[in-house]
Specification:
This protein is of the alpha/beta class. The protein contains 19 helices and ten strands.
Length: about 400
Amino acid sequence: MLANGVFAVVEGTNMPTRIEALKRFQVVHILFGPGQAANAGGVAVSGLEMRQNAARTTWKEDELQRRLRASLRGIHDRCVQYGRVARSKLMDQVRGANAGFVKVAEARIAQGVVGEGAFPADAATRQTARRRKGAAEGRPMIVTVANHKGGVGKTALAAHLVFRAAESGRVLAVDLDAQGNLSSTLAPRAEMLGRPSAEALFSGERRPEPTPSGLANIDLLPAASALNQTDRANLSAGLQARRFLGELGERYDVVVIDCAPALGLRLTAALAASTRLVVPLVPEAYAVDGVASLLGEATAIQEHLNPRLAPADFVLNMVIRQARSHQRTAEKLAGMVNLRRPYLHRRIAVTDALAERRPVWRSGRSAEAAHEWRELCDALLADFYRQR
């Protein structure tokens, strides 16, 4: 599109444009209408319909048109208000269309739910907060491992990060996936029955107390079947979980959160509390589809809820050396995202080690697998090691 001289792009669906493309549009000042703003008309119509139903009345067409124009004009004005670029005549409509996040933040502050400054309002304030918080000594490293597609080795990666960090400090593992694979990897299921679960982060009146896993330096908030209902809860439940995770994090050196393979309130709360996001992928075309929606969620949260959240790290898992398609996919991904090395190859030794509740480098089955996993975990935990 850039080569053919396109001067305007408008999304007609839910944010199909990737972050990389948005940045290129901004560099050459292409007019861009984001999906949030494009969908505002439909939302406005729904709102007007609800108002008529609530009042048990019907407006004539000219009255409906007048109200709809006023709503759309107000939406545009708010986009302009929140989207102005400092020291420039430009307006970033992507930023402006996210004005709703700012309104939610202001409401939460006004109600005293969170303190002033928890939601920095402009770019300069966000950058200052990020530098101040990033420079703080002793801050816990909170890592969310997520991908809304299953079968990519998410839990295996989360478990190995837990094992590696526990060799140098105290670690809390939080299992937000109702399947409970991380929980059963770290502790026998029978021993977790009746113990406080990760679901209490969202529904409990008090902060849940983690349970010792029986492994050195590792505590656990295990999964529970009730987590499947959590994504239907109100935003306030997610903000409570974020606060509880932050408070728990102060007691540990590293917190590792294993998210369910879905977008929802659990992922939002985890990212709002985290400093790092790690996304495992398999080198198949279908596995990378939809990653943009996960990145969009992370970007919105980083900008409006959690300025400490670093750009996502991607990990390539289950690579088959002989598969040329895997090599091509890896090369393509390396040019698109922050793809960490080394790549993890498909190995039975990893599955066998986790079945024994130990990392692959402690199993003695494959020296090559041990080297790959240990080196990758060290790279992802580099911020933690620097603080030590």
